[in-house]
Amino acid sequence: MNYLVAILPDRIQAESAYTQLEKAGLPQDQIAIVGRGFLSAEEVGLANPTVTARKRAVRMAVWLVPFGFVGGFLFNIQTGYYLLPSAGDVVNHLLGGLLGAVGGAMGSTFIGGGLILSPDGDGPTNLPYQEALKDGKFLVVFKGTSAGWKQQAEKVLQGLKPENLASYSLSQF
Fold first, then answer.
1. Separation of alpha carbons 71 and 74, rounded Å
2. S-S: 14 plus which of 7, 60, 98, 138, CB 3.0-4.6 Å?
3. What percent of the chain has pLDDT above 90?
4. What is the pLDDT of residue 90?
5. The domain spanning residue 9 has which CATH number?
């Protein structure tokens, strides 16, 4: 989903921008005001990418860990490889399943994006609009996939001289 986000200093300017976008004929269901007293960034779909990545990793782990366990268990049965020769069949099959589950957990972490390489967790994923919301400012968000409507919304919002006007493309899992 593509987002056009304008940062405005107060509620009056945000409501004015919303009204101007409506008058320009843009679909109302694609326009939102984010800030105190209005919608939150998560409700609009502008979630913090770090939080989104962690949720995606957990959702992947729900499936990958059990399948990894079953895969490791069956692989150990089929190959007959004994990880601990003195432990017996059942224990070795369970160890194979446990190693498969660990592989599934690693896959969900690395592929799902749950591993954050920034030491403080804010690094490159900290977007300007998050700071603006913390400072009590308002966002006018236009979301959609049509390039024509996005250009029209951009022209209207530029005329209002927002503090910042940026386009984001955030994927949802």
1. 5
2. 138
3. 21
4. 92
5. 3.30.70
- The secondary structure of 59-99 as a DSSP string is HHHHHHHHHHHHHHHHHHHHH---SSTTT-HHHHHHHHHHH
**What's the number of CA atoms in the CB half-sphere (13 Å) around residue 88?**
2
Main-chain dihedrals φ then ψ at residue 124, nearest 5 degrees: -75, -10
Pair 150, 142: CB distance under 8 Å: yes
Residues 6+ apart with CB under 8 A from 128: 7, 164, 166
HSE of 81 in the Cβ direction (CA atoms, 13 Å)? Answer: 10
Number of domains making up the chain? 2
Q: What is the pLDDT of residues 51-89, one digit of tens each?
A: 777 888 888 999 999 999 999 999 999 998 888 888 889
Q: In the chain, count of helices (H) and strands (E)? A: 6, 4
